[in-house]
Structures are given as structure tokens and as C-alpha cells.
Design goal:
about 425 residues, mainly alpha, Growth Hormone, Chain: A, about 0% strand
């Protein structure tokens, strides 16, 4: 995601205007797209297994007041690191980002079974967060270069399925595995070998990325200057989409980290099934309706979906049977199927070509912030002795804030006539 334009911008001299982007092939299913999807699945497997981390912290004797901060420490590290990393990401070094990040994440995963003291566990969470943010930063930056512009929403929809698949099958798989392990910590360590096939895919992907970079104008490969970054941060569409993504992820992270204990209390035999049903609905809609996403009024669809999810989440606390919770999971997964790819596509639409890679990482910055704020806030709520009605009510309220944030974006997109920024 010729250095001279970046250096001149840093020195206060405006950089040369970027030449037009080269036309990208219309074909979506390429080796590069398939490799990035495979790497994404393997990378997110090592995050999806942490759905029970709150319970694990309870098991190893971490005080209630520290469980929320330890939950949040991994995404907090990503939150702090991403703005710096995103500033230095180019198409030329995206694969290098992924390689270093995978090495750090592997070391962290192998350390969890031995990190019971709070200080050591905090260190492992920091290393894990740094490794994961490097993987995702390089992954998203490289993906941006290979998606055909006329099939952006479909491409993001399909790619996001790779993020969802681990959340569908890893929680129930870990639940089946736990009776044979001494603790959750060993389940985390067993995810480390998944990084090996991801490493193997980086070699051919790196060669193809360098070949693509060689065909692009030097101005499109340089880092954005600070003046361009400031301009992006002053763009109403960019700022509102970052805010909406933050609220979406903060609300979702509360559901993700606290649903297991709620489902156990409700009598669910396998509490991981909530995520299986939610993500099955999510995946089915994104795969089956991927082409439709590019034809929607994106801003309006986002607004109404956020509103529906904001009303749905508080209802989870009032279901009386596990099967009814699974019905709610299907509705929840349907909402998530619409929101995430549309937020990304809206960001592409409002971003000039040279800033699309940077602005995509601003969305990921919002993901980091949401995954920090959500579990931290949820941990505070539960530490105060509040019930799940309050917890899920807070999550639903945050989702409604996403609807408020994205409403003006619908008007911006209508003024643009559906055409991407030039």
C-alpha cells in the first residue's frame, strides 16, 4: 500500500498530481483475490477463537475489573499502531507487512498457555495486537489494488465472507475441543500452525504484486503526503463513514465477547452455535446476493439496516429459549451481511483514487477502536453488576448511533450520482 512525491509533501512542497489509475481487469476471481481470501481466513481463525476470552480470564483468576481492559488490549494496540502503519503502507510493501505480522501473531498464540500473570498476559496481548494489525493492514491495502472497480461491492462482500467463516466454525469447534485440553490457552496455541499455509501463499502473491506495481504510475505507489491526509480527515463523507464503522464494530464486539456466557445461562448445549447461525446467514446473503449489493442505494440501505440492528440487539436479553436466540442470530447475521461491505464500498465511492488505500485503513482504524471500546465498556457494565438487558441495550444504542452517522452519507452519494470520486 518513486518516494519523491511523499518527500516533497513532507517538506511542505505540494506533490505532483497523480496520473489516472490504470484500468483494472473486470474479472474478480483471480489468483490474487483467491490468495488474499485464503490468507484472510487463516488470519481471522486466530481471532475468532477468542470469543471465550472473557471466560478464560475468569478461569485463570483475573480480577473482574481487569478483564475488560485485557480483552481490549489487543485491539487497543492495533488502534495505536494503525495510523502510523497506514501512513507507510504502499502496494510495494503490503506483502512484507503481512509476513512480519504473521510472525508476531504466531509467537503470541504460542505464548498464551504460559501467560497467567497479568503483566505477562498483557505483553502477549500487545504482541498479538501488533502482529494482527500488520497482517490486516497489508491484506486490505493489497486487496484494494486487485479489486475491479465495477465490482467493488461484490468483491468486498465475497472477501468479507473470509472474515466471517472463522467466526462460524471456530467457536463450535473450540467448544468440542475444550474437554480434551487443560485450558482455553492451549486452544489459542493450537491456532498457531494455521499461519504456515498463509506464509506459503505470500511468495507467489508477492511476485504478482510487484508485477502489478511495475505497471502503475509512480505517483500512485507513493505514500500520501500529510496535506492529503489532512484533506481526507476534513472530508465529511470519510469522517462519517469512519464514525459509522466504529459504532458498528463497538456494538458488534459486545455481542461477540459476551454472547457465550449469556447463551450458557440460557441453557444452550453449544453456545458457539449462535455464531454459526449468524455467520451462516451472513455468508449466504453475501455469496447469493453479492451482485445486488452494487445496485442498491447504498446510503439508504445502510441507514435502515443499522436501525433494524439497533432494535434487534436489545431483544436478545429477553428471549426465553436457546432456539429463539438462534432465530435472532439469523436476523443479526443478515444485518451484518449488508453493513460491512456497504460501508467499505461507500468509502471507495467518496475517496479519490490516490487516497483509497489510506482511507480503507481509516475504516480498519475504526474497527480497532470499536473492538477496544466495545468490550471495555461491556466489561465495565458487567463489573458494576448490571444484567444482560442493560448490556445488550447499550450495544443496540451504539448501533443506532451508526444509523445517525451514515444518514448524511446517503445524501453525499446521491449528489455524486453514484459515481466514484475522481
Amino acid at each position: 500500500m518513486s518516494q519523491s512525491p511523499a518527500h516533497s509533501a513532507a517538506a511542505g512542497v505540494p506533490s505532483a498530481p497523480a496520473t489516472p489509475e490504470p484500468k483494472t481487469p473486470g474479472r474478480l476471481m483471480t489468483f490474487e483475490f483467491a490468495a488474499l481470501c485464503a490468507i484472510s481466513i487463516l488470519a481471522f481463525c486466530n481471532i475468532a477463537i477468542f470469543y471465550g476470552f472473557y471466560s478464560y480470564l475468569t478461569e485463570i483468576g483475573i480480577a473482574p475489573g481487569w478483564r475488560g481492559p485485557l480483552l481490549s488490549l489487543e485491539p487497543l494496540t492495533a488502534l495505536v499502531a494503525r495510523p502510523f502503519l497506514g501512513r507507510y503502507l504502499t502496494l510495494n510493501n503490503g506483502v512484507r507487512f503481512m509476513r512480519v505480522g504473521m510472525a508476531l501473531a504466531t509467537c503470541a498464540l504460542l505464548s498464551y498457555p504460559f501467560a497467567h500473570a497479568m503483566a505477562l498476559l498483557a505483553l502477549v496481548r500487545v504482541v498479538h495486537g501488533l502482529g494482527f494489525v500488520m497482517v490486516v493492514t497489508g491484506l486490505m491495502g493489497t486487496l484494494m489494488a486487485f479489486l475491479p472497480k465495477e465490482r467493488m461491492a461484490q468483491g468486498f462482500g465475497l472477501f468479507s465472507v473470509t472474515i466471517l467463516l472463522p467466526y462460524a466454525f471456530m467457536p463450535p469447534f473450540v467448544e468440542l475441543l475444550l474437554p480434551h485440553l487443560s485450558s482455553h490457552g492451549w486452544a489459542y496455541a493450537l491456532a498457531a500452525p494455521l499461519m504456515l499455509p498463509a506464509f506459503l501463499l505470500l511468495a507467489p502473491l508477492g511476485r504478482r504484486t510487484r508485477a502489478l506495481a511495475a505497471t502503475m504510475p509512480a505517483a500512485n505507489l507513493s505514500r500520501p503526503g500529510w496535506s492529503e491526509v489532512r484533506q481526507a480527515l476534513r472530508s465529511a463523507g470519510v469522517v462519517l463513514l469512519v464514525a459509522a464503522n466504529f459504532f458498528l464494530v463497538a456494538a458488534h464486539s459486545i455481542v461477540f465477547f459476551f454472547m457465550r456466557d449469556f447463551a450458557v445461562g440460557l441453557g444452550a448445549v453449544n453456545p458457539g452455535e449462535f455464531f454459526t447461525f449468524a455467520n451462516a446467514a451472513n455468508i449466504a446473503l453475501r455469496v447469493g446476493g453479492g451482485r445486488v449489493l452494487d445496485k442498491l442505494d447504498m446510503g439508504r440501505a445502510l441507514t435502515f439496516t443499522f436501525l433494524g440492528m439497533g432494535l434487534l440487539i436489545p431483544l436478545f436479553a429477553h428471549v426465553g429459549a436457546p432456539w429463539l436466540l438462534l432465530v435472532g442470530a439469523v436476523l443479526y447475521g443478515t444485518g451484518m451481511a449488508l453493513t460491512m461491505p456497504l460501508v467499505n464500498t461507500c468509502m471507495i465511492a467518496v475517496s479519490p483514487p490516490r487516497m483509497r488505500m489510506y482511507n480503507a485503513n481509516l475504516l480498519m482504524f475504526a474497527v480497532d477502536a470499536g473492538f477496544f471500546a466495545g468490550p471495555f465498556l461491556g466489561g465495565v457494565v458487567m463489573a458494576q453488576g448490571a444484567g444482560y438487558d442493560v448490556l445488550f441495550g447499550v450495544s443496540g444504542g451504539i448501533m443506532l448511533l451508526a444509523a445517525v452517522s451514515v444518514r448524511p452519507v446517503a445524501r453525499i452519494l446521491r449528489r455524486m450520482g453514484g459515481r466514484p470520486a475522481e
